[in-house]
Amino acid sequence: MLPQLESDYREFHAHPELSMQETWTAGRIEEHLRELDLEPQRFGGTGVVAVVENGDGPVVAYRADTDGLPIHEDTGLEYASTARGTLADGTETPVMHGCGHDTHITVALGIARLLTSNREAWSGTVIMIFQPGEETGEGALAMLEDGLWEKLPKPQAVYGQHVWPNLAGQVSLSAGTAMAMSDCLRVTVRGKQAHGSQPEAAIDPIVLAAFMVTRLQTVVSREISAREAVVVTVATIRGGLKENIIPDSAEFTMNIRTFSEEVRADVLAAIERIIYAEAEASGAPKPSIEEMYRFPRCYNSPQHAEELESVFASAIGEDNVALTEPATGSEDVGRFGDSIGVPYVYWFFGAYSEEKMATPGGPAGNHSPFFAPDEVAKTLSTGVRTGIAAILHELQR
Q: Is 375 marked active-site?
């Protein structure tokens, strides 16, 4: 199957699409599924689902995400993306599969091929979910709101996995909390516009935003216990159109990662207090704080995760499997299980050669313009092996 997997991977890598705009991607996935005599269904616009039925038995779901990112690819690969897309605000942007979702699509299609070509080896029902919009937290909700579990058999467990910058052939998973909650905020700072030569007539929102950004760095270092894992990142800031005009507003966006609801509430309260207080100290109008989106905590069933540790050890070797601490990244895969109260497990598989792992500073991580597996065959093979192993284990429960 490897030649087919590598061909699929290159094709999907070269044709990324932005979140909730995965029109070509969804259509191509459907073509592959129809070749396997499956009947794909649409949920949430560009979400695709195939139900693989094979007699009586348990029902298990497997999920892969499909969207790309607004990144200009700089990998130098012959099949590198030259795709362009349009963001929600109308801005045109290059698009890249900088988080590895092309790998996830390819692995899921490989699993579907194994299931349909080896029906004598299993019985039950497997629901293959190709989810859009993971990067913006929209996709899982859109599919659920479109009646996913009202129209399809409800699984007894949900599985999924993510490629990341680790050694190809190796897998890691967490028992319990696996990934953080995430809150994304947009802050609009309001001031008073004036000529750049007359700052006394203005309330400068750029200076004010700078004070806010600086003070927000103290939330983690001075307000939260060092025993808690918290990340507060200001990732974009913009304001003004000309060098000699003090504008009337500025804007910045934030991303917050936490692992408990209590700490999350404390962090968000501190952020709000600082932003409002800095505005008041500057005599500025009250800023607005808008929630753009949020991700729930990803919580792996401890029982299922511990079982999979042994299952994966049998599939790819004990030395290639490790239980790890939670990742500070976030995922919406858990919504599929949480929405119907069933357990789920989400794990990680590596993408790089030993040579690449030894690169000074480490290999490129997810969301980098340089991210791409250099051990493609081994990466895809590991993903398919662990994915099918998890599914077959659940079907035999």
A: yes
